[in-house]
Every structure is written in C-alpha cells, then in structure tokens.
Amino acid sequence: MKGRSMPGTFFSPQLDRRTVLGLGLSTAAVAAGLTAGCAPGDGSEADGPVSPSERVPLPTHVVFETVPADLKGENGSSDAFLHYPANPPVTVDGVPGDGQPITALASYYLAAPPPMSENAAWQHLNQQLGSEFQFQPVPAADYSARFATTVAGNDLPTMMELAKVARLPELVRARFVDLTEHLSGDAVTRYPNLANLPPAAWQAGVFNNAIYGIPTDRGMWQTGLLFQRSDLIAAMGADAGQVTDFDDLFALCEQLTDSRNSVWALTNTPVAYVRQMLGVPNMWQLDGGNLTNAYEVPEQEEVLNACIRLWEAGVVHPDAFALSGAEAKQLFGSGRTLITYDSYPAWFQYHREQTVGETFDIDGMPLPGYDGGQGTLHLGRPAYSVGAISQGNEDRVETILDIWNYLAAPFGSAEHLSVIYGEEGVNYTLEGSDPVQTERGLREALSLVTLVCAPRVGYFPNDPGVTTKFFEHMKQLAPQGVDNPAIYRYSAAESQNGAELTARLDSEFNDIIQGRKKISDWADSVATWRSDGGDQIRAELEEALAAE
Amino acid sequence: MSTSTMTPRRPGRGKLVKTIPGMSHSQRLRAINGANPPGIPMRSVKGLVLLIACLLVILPFVAVISTSLADQAQINAAGGYVLFPERPTLAAYEAIFRGGVVTRATVVSIGVTLVGSALSVTVVTMLAFALARPGTFGHKPILLMVLFTMLFSAGMIPNYLLVKQLGLLDSYWALILPTLVSGFQVILMRGFFLEVPREIIDAARIDGAGEIRILTRIMVPLSKAALAVIALFTAVGYWNAFFNAVLYMSSAEKWPLQLVLRTYVVDNSSIGIDLPGEYIPPQQSLQMAILVVSLVPICLVYPFLQKHFAKGVVLGAVKG
C-alpha cells in the first residue's frame, strides 16, 4: 500500500543492522534528496525561462454551464447562487475509483473530522469514489514541517498538497508525476470538472515548463478589501459607502471612534488599502521589461504619512499591531471596531458566526483614489494551493485524475453535494433545494478545499440578501483589479528568502507608523532589502518575463 | 539564677531557640524570627500586595473558564474575554465532546502521558543510577553522549527518518519513544544519586544486596523528591506535546488533545464549514472550552506533587 506506514512497536523486528545502516543512508539522502537528488536530471536549470513557442499549453478552459448562476460575475468576479440549484446534474459517469485505496495529504483549517469508521460523510464519499479515500489532514499552521518530513522520508501519499518550500520546481520533478500529457490543451477535456478550472489558476501548477499540479481555484476570493459594520455605522448617522478619497476616510474614522467607550473605527492600520488608494503596484510593476517592486515606489512615503496620521489620531485599535487574525475578527464582530481589512471569504464567515441580533450586517467599502477617482485593487492569487500526484502512481494516473475530477465537481452538481455535504438524510436535509447541514453533517463533512476546489461561488441561503451584497461588491470592484505581473514566475532567490525579506521590511514599515523609526529611515530599509536579495529576485523574475 | 527554656523555632521542626520566661509575646516572636514582627499596617500592605499578585495569576484562569461558558452576545459585549458570564451555558463543552474528537484526543493524551511518564522515569532513573556508579562500563562515553543531546539536536528530518525506519509511524509509540530520555533529567537524577552516602550502598552490598535491590530499595526511596520532579516534568512534557503528532501521525483519530487544541486556537478552526446548518457556539467559547479541558488534568495532579517539586528543584540546583 503506497504511502502508508504500518504501525510498529519499539521492539520492531525491522530494527536490525540493515535498518541501522539504512538510517545512515537515509539521513545522507535527506541532504542529497532535497538538493542534489532533486536537481534536474537533464542538467537544465529547473523552471528556467521558456520562450512562448516552447511554453506548455495550459489546459483548455471549458466552463461548466449546465447550471446557470443566479448572479453572473463579470471581469473576474465570482458567480453567485441565491439557492442551491434544484435537481443537480451528474457530471461524472460511473464510479471513478478502481477499488484500491487513495491516500491524500493536505493542510486542514477545520477541527479534525471523526475517523472514517464513524464518519457517514466520509464513507459516503468512499462509496461514490469507488476507492477508499484515506485522507490525512494536517493542521494548516504545521503543514510545511509535515510536508518536509514526508518528502524527505520519500513516503508520499498518492495525492498531496504542495507546500510553499524552497526549490519547489526541482522537488516536483524528483518526486511527482508530470501530468502534461493528461491535462495540457484539449487533453483535459477528458476530465470536464478539471477543465472547468480557469487558466489563471492553472498557471500555479506549472513547474519546469510542465503541468505537475492541479490548482485549488479561488478567483478573486483571496483579494483583500475593507469591511464595514454597516449596521452600526448607519446607526451613528454615517455612510461608509460614500467615501470618495482619503480625507473622507479619515473624517469618517474620526466620527466613528469613541475610545472612551472602547470603540475604534479601524481594527488595523489599513496599509494595503491606502496603498491601493495611491495606486502602488500589486507587488511588482512591469515597465519596458524592467520590474519595480511595490516597496520601491515613492508613493510608499505617502502611504506612511497617511497611516501615521490615522495611528496618531487614535482611530486605530491600540492593539492593532499585536492582534491575531482571530482577535481582529472578534473585535470587528463584536462591534469594538467598525472597519477592518480582510478577504472575501470573511463575508460569509462573519454572517455565519455572528448570530446575535437580527440587525448584524456588514458591507464592503468602495476603493476610491487617494485624492478622488478610483484606486487600483490588488487582486489576490487566483489559486490558493496546488495538488500533485506522487511518483510511483504512473500506472494509476488516469484513475487518480478521474477521482480528482469527481472531487472538483462544480457547485450545483450532484457530486458537489456529496463532496461538500455528505449523505442526504444523514449529513444534510433539503429545505426547498438548499441543503441544510445536520448536527452530524457539521462535524463529519471533510473540507478538501486545500487540495481540490472547484471555482468558488457566492452562496449563503440563510439570507440571500447577504449573497447579493457580496456579489455586487465584488462585481463593482473587479474592473479596478490589477494583477501582479510576475505572479507564478519562479525566482530561486524569492523561494528561499523572499518571505523573510518581506517580513523584515513590513516590520520596519510598522515601526515607522508607530513612531519607533522615522520616515527618512524607509529609504535605508529598502536599500537593505535590495542588497539582501531584492535585486536578485528582481533580476530572476525579469529574466523569466523577458523570455515571454 | 536565671532559667531558660528551649522554644521550638517552628513547631515540628526540632530546631530550638533560647527564650527566657517572662518575655512578652513580641519579644518571643522576635527571638523566634530574629526580627521585630511587622505591625498591622505593614501586614495589611503585604496582604494587599499578595492579594493583587494572586488576582493577577487567577484572573486569566477565571477569564478562560468564564469565556468558555459565555454565549456570543456576552462575548460581543465584553469585546472578547468574559469575566462574569450572566447566562452561563455549557454549549461549547457539549459541542466539543459531541463529536468524539476531543474525547478521543483526551484519552490519547492521558494514555500517552501515563505510559510515557512511567517508562521515562524508569529509564531515566536506571540510566542515572548507572552513570552515578563509578566503574560502570562505558561510564564516561555514555555520560558524554547524554550531555551531547542537551547541546545538539538531530533535527526534525533525521528524527522523522529514525521513527520511520523503526516502523513507528502512525503508532502511539512515536509519541512516547522519541522523548523518552531527557539528558537534563538524567543529569538531575545522577546528581541526586551522587549525594547518597556511599557507606549506605556499601552496607547494603555487605548485606548481600545486588544492584537492582540497591536501586529499588535504597536509592529510589531516598530520591522521592527528585523522582517527583522528573515525573512532573515528563508528564507535563508529554501532556503538552503536539509536534511529534503532526509529523508522525497520519490518522487524525490518533491526535493528542494538544494538537486538537492547536487546530482551534492557532488555526482558528471552526467546528464546521461555512455552510448553513445548526447553531454553533462562538469560536472564542470553543477555544476556551478546549483550553479548560487541557488544563484540568495538570491542575489536578500538580497540588499533590508540588511539595516534592519545590524541594527537588532546589536540591537539583545545588547538586551536580
């Protein structure tokens, strides 16, 4: 059974001289396995620049249109459904599995599900797949560590979410199956639910000019926005939807803040929002083949001035720089803060969790320019993660892709109901056409969205008005969206040091806002970022873009 | 001829100080304590300071327990942590125990802690005894190896490979064996054993006792304080451990409680997904409820070991 270790005991007969020797060899293999062992077999540089004529064709996009959306997205905004479609169509013929178990490893954002033997939703899924789906959830915060050890032990499950680790292109070449012949171009049409994934997301699965990964599509969902407590703000006689420039925002924040009663306008200093008001690039700006990082543009000093103004005016929660994500949500949900920066999934999360009072309501803020006009919306990454098939499964690739195709069934299909909700009557019941989770369903449903995910849609049947408001906001902001021009281009320096360099620079940015450093120090911070690796990242990304 | 009596300095301690009949109460106290007893104002100030210190320690516990009993409205009203829930509800506890995940994880944690602590104390004691006996075969190299582990760790991946090659992946032994022997505890116990007078051991040997009997009948009974300390250290270590489970356990049903707790607190996991359904308790209450569940066993055990703990730590600090 691939990828599954049998339980052992301390007195395992495996512990003999050969095992001890194997330990030594394996330890050496770690060093070699993740470095030299993963080096390209053909001697070429992994994920190097590729000219357009040689670039692997992405899977053909064939949109699932059997179930029309109630609200149709535009310019990249998501579709939305006010109710679950009645009579969901079947998108997969027959049973995709071959009777053999499929192991899967992915990060998990929910509480651990009950084991398969006690989990009706899981058993129902196994039945539908025709293979036992041996899913191994890993707490999301620790997934990188688990991924590294699993790869080093070469004990890979059949399906695996790829973690964001250094030298990923070399790693996928050494350990995962090249899916190009199965998914590139029209080949993907054999798997219609995978063909339903948009090209922007597929780009995330391309390594070494080959398709290794299947993306979890998010569209615009990972894009950040300012949320407002429209119920409380309206009760104070204000209208956050009418903000037309930064001065408006500042005046509104002053009006909303009542620190004596522990109410502040802003949960966090809205750095990202102000940057978007000022037209700062989305990570990089491409001009004539040259890249400029967002940190390098002169507007950053204006961003700093604006944020310092907000901070010193006392309209930001005093713990803003120390809040965890959960604490920030709690402050906003409880009405201690009235405006917060978050991403689109939070729209439904707030409505689901804040069940107190009938007046609870939120809305998205508009994104005006700093001095009027329109700001530029920084679009989030279109794929949250990428899943891949481990080597050693080459003879089962089509079966595994069939199963992947089943799991990626779009909203409104019969398979989607099985994957997300479980078994009807046990895990959910229907109210009209809308599935409503039972208490068992709430506990048992597997959340596979970090491994496989169909295009997300807006859906909140408890209150269709929420869905409509969400949809309208996303649709309204979509035309203002700008992509990161270097997204999914590979830079070895970035994969190794990028996150640390960015974190260091962000920390210094926050120091300036809080008065621990001066605005004049910012230029030095950027210069340090450049010399510590920023320039190298830029050069590698420019090289990748130049080949296109 | 003046007479004097010997007054116990402290009842039951046997040490005596000299007091004279006719001494006033305060004089007697001064003779006993070596200083004037503080007056009422000073004692009041001290009491107040201690009271504040106690409140500072207790308040977070009260907040955790109260918040676990609060509903969303009270959490909203308090802006996060609730101190005095007006309408206490056990909904959060019902929710976390209803699914069986937390119950199972609690059983796993208790089992791993009990078995791991018992094995660890046994192994550490035997190793420390051997290293405390001069002339033991390989005494110095083994001691150096133990000390080496206190300075350098193999690292995450080599440890994983070791566990894998031993065939322990997805086995409860993977949660016990990798942390079975602690260099620090071996050194602590060895130091304690070295303080036992050699004459006692020699006398036992003359009486025909072997090494095992010397260890079990003489050394261990004399080392209860040190054993209590390492038992507590080990138990707390096993109880709080979660990372080995992340690396070694494929099946979520074998997760210990701390890993389940981590998914709620660090990942801010919800009990369900973003779908319509039944009422779920507020996230904050769920987090605090699991925190309470994870704190209870240690809070129950600690008072019984506390007196040994304080004594053992002090002894360990001056003996090496």
UniProtKB/TrEMBL annotation, chain A:
Superkingdom assignment: Bacteria
Entry-linked InterPro entries: Bact_solute-bd_prot1 (IPR050490), SBP (IPR006059), TAT_signal (IPR006311)
SUPFAM superfamilies (alphabetical): Periplasmic binding protein-like II
Compartments in which it is found: Cell envelope
Keyword annotations of the record: Lipoprotein, Signal, Transport
Entry GO CC: cell envelope
Pfam families: SBP_bac_1
Similarity comment: family membership: Belongs to the bacterial solute-binding protein 1 family.
Protein name, as recorded: Lipoprotein LipO
UniProt source species: Occultella aeris
Automatic annotation (TrEMBL), chain B:
Record keywords: Cell membrane, Membrane, Transmembrane, Transmembrane helix, Transport
All residue ranges annotated as the ABC transmembrane type-1 domain in the record: 106-301
GO CC terms in record: plasma membrane
Its membrane topology: Multi-pass membrane protein
Transmembrane regions listed in the UniProt entry: 48-70, 107-130, 142-161, 173-193, 214-239, 286-305
Pfam families in the cross-refs: BPD_transp_1
Subcellular location: Cell membrane
Gene3D superfamilies on file: MetI-like
Any one GO BP annotation for this protein: transmembrane transport
Family per similarity comment: Belongs to the binding-protein-dependent transport system permease family.
Protein name: L-arabinose transport system permease protein AraQ
